[in-house]
Structures are given as C-alpha cells and as structure tokens.
Amino acid sequence: MKKRTFLNTVLVGGVLAGLSLPALAQTAFDGPTTGPAAAEGKSIVVLAADLKNGGILGVTNGVEEAAAAIGWDVRVLDGGGSIQGRTAAIGQAMALQPDGIVINGFDAVEQQAALEGVVAANIPMVAWHSGPKIGCDAPGGIFANVSTDAMTVSEVAAEWAMADGGDNVGVVIFTDSTYQIAIDKADRIKETIEAMGGTVLEYVDTPIADTSSRMGPLTTSLLQKYGDSWTHALAINDLYFDFMGPALAAAGIPGDGAPLAGSAGDGSEAAFQRIRAAQYQAITVAEPLNLQGWQLVDELNRAVQGEACSGYITSPALVTQEGLAKLGDSNSFDPDSPYREAYRAIWGK
C-alpha cells in the first residue's frame, strides 16, 4: 500500500474515508433542542467502573457539572476497577434510594443480577458505554446508552495506522474481553487493518484494570517477539498506553519511535499530554466526555418524567500532535459548540 498524506489535525474540518470530523471553529450544537423542563429536587448516583480511567473520570466530571446546572444532588461511587467493587457500588446506590442512576463505563451484562434489582425498584438508569447497543432502550433496563459510534472510532484509529505506516504496517491490538464493546471495537480494528492490506501481528486480551502491572512486561515480550515488524500499537482505550512508555524507553526506543501508539477511545488527559509531548502515543480518537456527561443528565431528566429518550449520538475527533498545537494548553476534547446553553434552555435553567 502506498503511503498517503493523512489529516494531521484535531477538531479541524475534514473528511477521512467519508467520516466527518468536528471543526475547530464554533459549530452549532447538533443535539436535541426540545425536551422536558428540569425535574426539581432530584438526587442521582454515578456508578463509576474505575475513576482511574480517564474516560470515565471525564464523563463523571461532566455529569457533576450538568447536575449543578439542573439543580440536582450527585453522589459518585467508584467500583475501583473490579467486578466485586462494581457490585458493591450498586448495593450502596440502592441503599441511597436515588431518583436515578448513571452506569458509567461497565458492561450491563456483567452486573445483570444486580441491575435487575434496580429495575425492580423502578429507578431509571442511563449509561455510558454499557454495551454494544448505542442510544435508546439499551439492554438491561437502561433508558439510554450514551456513546459515540464505537465502530467509527475503531475504523478511524485503524485507518490512521495504515496511512501512517505505508506498505509495512504490523499492528498489535490490545483489548479486554471483560467488555463486549471492547471485543467489538478490537474486532473492527483488526478487520479494517486486514482489509486495507496491513498485518495484525497479535491480538492481545489483557484486562484494563491490570494495565499498571501487565503492560510493562507485556511490551518487553512483544518487542522481543516481533522486533522492527511491530510498527503500531492500537488499543481500545488510552489506559493501555499509560504504562507502556517505560518499557519502550528501556529498550532504547525514542518517544516518537515505533511502535507508534494509537487509541480507539476515549481521549484522556494523560493521552493528550503524551501526544503533545511525542511520548509514546501519536493519536487518540477522542469522545466529547464532558458533553456526554451533560447528555446523561438530560436523558435521565427525560427518564424520570416518562418522556422518550433523545436518541442523540455524539461525534468523535481524531487527536494528533499537530491538532493539539491549535488548542493551546487544553488537554481534553470539548466541542466548541453551545451545548451547555442548549441543555440549559431545554431545562429552563
């Protein structure tokens, strides 16, 4: 495959393989414009899978900001990165008797038994990344599952690697089979790489929660196994690359050397910092985490009042070093659209 020039921008209007990317200049809000006014005096609980995950933390911050705007109380419970921790958090949430619950960053199937208790108690639930079905009426009694199109995110990351690598792309893919959406994303990355003529050297299933202990030795092992044929590392989440750099540095690989890392989600602050400094990550395909937090609160406001969900699906952005230079000191993808004002107008706030 002949190497082609790639769109080395972030939030700059352009098209990659038919996929529109957001623009740097302020754009109109493309979400809902109508909906119920704010329900007064509600309390909600955010069940965070693991607040060490930058995507989950970003969404949680957005929920807290939006809840303050709508006038609701928020309690955040951290599952701590374990199945048992998430089960315990659901039990704590039930004891608080909230008006609504936000499932933040874990698969509803994993907690099916516990969530059946939430449904039985008639507590509305909305979610971020709770499974492969995006939008309204997600499985497990979830009113709305908020996300970008995960398959689009995966395709953009894979297409970047192919465009960057030219004729000799060799990819290692990192995923976590604990989550069905992670499997689906990794599968789409693999399909896209192979369809474009690249080579998938290895498909690595390693838990996100264990990246701090696993990624160092795993990186060293992969370097020994594949050597220079390993040109790109692609993962379903930025967290994998939080712990890869030291092993690469120990092997004498510079920060902008191969294997170049690219993430199919979620656009964490740490990832932005690595990309900006050219330290072992070249791109991420970021989600508008803060906006998604506002959307979760809006969807929950619809749910508690018996209204239909909005069906809104947000758009991702390809984040590169060149694009970050245009954003000044910002280390998050926050669309330059008046989404806060739009939601406040819907809520009458």
Automatic annotation (TrEMBL):
UniProt-listed Pfam families: Peripla_BP_4
Principal subcellular localisation of the protein: other
One MF annotation (Gene Ontology) recorded for this entry: carbohydrate binding
Domain Periplasmic binding protein: 44-307
Compartments in which it is found: Cell envelope
Residue ranges of the TM segments: none
Family, similarity comment: Belongs to the bacterial solute-binding protein 2 family.
Protein name: Monosaccharide ABC transporter substrate-binding protein, CUT2 family
